[in-house]
Amino acid sequence: MALVGVIMGSISDWETMEHTCSMLEELEISYEKQVISAHRTPDDMFAYAESAKEKGLKVIIAGAGGAAHLPGMVAAKTTLPVIGVPVQSKSLDGMDSLLSIVQMPGGVPVATVAIGKAGAKNAGLLAAQMIGAFDDQTASRLEAYQAAQRKKVAEMRDQLAD
Ligand code: RP5
């Protein structure tokens, strides 16, 4: 059973959103992925948002670029936490995506991460942290992930000192 739903506005978003999925796999979080467009398939978007909770999802991660309405509109139709990933668009470098996702009206939150790959990766981590707040095994994997990051920095320090 998938705990996290990863959706994106277009297949062109996959090169960004695959970093979310890789992180979820690394942390052993079950997920499903789907292309759902706010503008091209609005009925599918609402159906997905409305059924997400009852099918067992705990978090939705939505990536979109340009006029990036997918995360906000999904958030409008579910009580699950929604994480928005601004995809780096070609024309405005992702600033359009970021502002479209982050500037939600009070009452309809979308947890917005950074533009592009770093944000996509952090979206996976953030979803794992939400699940880890209630699941000890996930919390342990997150501790191991942080310990590995500390080790990498320690190696960088050694490298610099050589
Ligand atoms: C958005 O429009 C998608 O999220 C994508 O980032 C952007 C461009 O989509 P394509 O024209 O590449 O399908 O809906």
From TrEMBL:
Organism this protein belongs to: Sediminibacillus dalangtanensis
Xref: InterPro entries: PurE_ClassI (IPR033747), PurE_dom (IPR000031), PurE_prokaryotes (IPR024694)
Residues that hold substrate according to the record: 10, 13, 40
EC number: 5.4.99.18
PANTHER family linked: PHOSPHORIBOSYLAMINOIMIDAZOLE CARBOXYLASE (PTHR23046:SF2), PHOSPHORIBOSYLAMINOIMIDAZOLE CARBOXYLASE CATALYTIC SUBUNIT (PTHR23046)
Keywords of the record: Isomerase, Lyase, Purine biosynthesis
Role description: Catalyzes the conversion of N5-carboxyaminoimidazole ribonucleotide (N5-CAIR) to 4-carboxy-5-aminoimidazole ribonucleotide (CAIR).
MF-aspect GO terms: 5-(carboxyamino)imidazole ribonucleotide mutase activity; phosphoribosylaminoimidazole carboxylase activity
Catalysed reaction equations from the record: 5-carboxyamino-1-(5-phospho-D-ribosyl)imidazole + H(+) = 5-amino-1-(5-phospho-D-ribosyl)imidazole-4-carboxylate
SMART domains cross-referenced by the UniProt entry: AIRC
Name assigned to this protein: N5-carboxyaminoimidazole ribonucleotide mutase
Superkingdom assignment: Bacteria
Occurrences of domain PurE (ranges): 2-153
Pathway the protein acts in: Purine metabolism; IMP biosynthesis via de novo pathway; 5-amino-1-(5-phospho-D-ribosyl)imidazole-4-carboxylate from 5-amino-1-(5-phospho-D-ribosyl)imidazole (N5-CAIR route): step 2/2
NCBIfam families: purE
Family that this chain belongs to: Belongs to the AIR carboxylase family. Class I subfamily.
Coiled coil (residue ranges): none
Enzyme class: isomerase
